[in-house]
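Collaborator request, handled under Task 6.
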Amino acid sequence: MKKVISVLLIFAVFATFTACTGSERLTHMTIVQGLALDVADSGVSATIQYLDLNKGNGKNEEISGNITSYESARGADIKSAIANVSKKLPDALFFGQNKIIVISPDFELRYSRELREYLVKNKESRPDVFILKSRGKAADVLLKSHKNTRVPADSICRQLEKAHSDVTVSEYLAGDSLKTYSIS
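Structure tokens returned to the collaborator:
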């Protein structure tokens, strides 16, 4: 009986310390680079910019040109809008490489409390992501700004850092005001 209990205990310890459960490979995920949130008739519109390595058109396996694609969806709230975007794509969304969150002025007025709650409670939320406010539609910042660069969201981040116009999620949650970003 002691041997059976010992074997079960060893198996339980072994199973606890293995990382086999719930893991996914990045090759089977959609890597989000930017998120834009706008007010829609039915609630919230979410637009994501994600890496699309199939768009690389260089020679000798060199990637050149814009390697991002976009997808949008609507939902009753932030979480459902993002879930609806995810349903349109073949792979699960991965926000671990997200660079920016863009919100429209009307979104900030209407959903600022919900946005703060989403940023605090969402397991995918990171404190070092830049958050900014657009002059008009937030999706336009992702869709039209820096569109000739390899990864527009990354290019926008470098521009914000250079101009010292960056506000991170943690600073926003601590009460800092959002900077307004104009499409250049």
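The cover message to the collaborator said: "The chain is about 35% helix and 25% strand. The beta strands are 29-40, 43-51, 68-75, 92-94, 100-103, 130-134, 180-181. Please let us know whether this matches your experimental observations."
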